[in-house]
Design a protein that fits this description.
Helix content is 39%, strand content 19%. Helix 2 runs parallel beside helix 3. The radius of gyration is 22 Å and the shape is globular. The chain has 94 residues and is an alpha+beta fold. The protein has a 3-stranded antiparallel sheet. It is built from 3 helices and 3 strands. It has a domain of 55 residues.
């Protein structure tokens, strides 16, 4: 008998593990989160058209920090409004 054959008695490694996650949907927050995510992705695409990269990270205090980079230069921005204002300074049209 081939050692690689599975006669149904032994499950694949991922089937042996019982992954179970419980999630709670918050309808009021999910729309807000979805809108914020869409706004970020839109700005990320707009910066890409100008040759810049837009990143988002979480600071040690839990605040979200936005980073715009090009050619090794980095600009740290505190919120999406500041990101949009910097985009306008670069000559981007919203």
């Amino acid at each position: 008998m081939n050692a690689h054959q599975n006669d149904g008695q032994e499950k694949e490694p991922f089937e042996r593990l019982n992954f179970c996650a419980t999630t709670t949907k918050h309808p009021t927050n999910s729309a807000t989160i979805r809108d914020a995510e869409k706004a970020f992705i839109t700005m990320q695409a707009r910066f890409a058209l100008l040759g810049h990269s837009l990143y988002r990270t979480t600071a040690s205090n839990g605040a979200i920090v936005f980073l715009v980079t090009k050619w090794g230069a980095v600009r740290e921005l505190k919120n999406l409004e500041a990101v949009a204002a910097f985009f306008a300074v670069l000559g981007g049209k919203v």
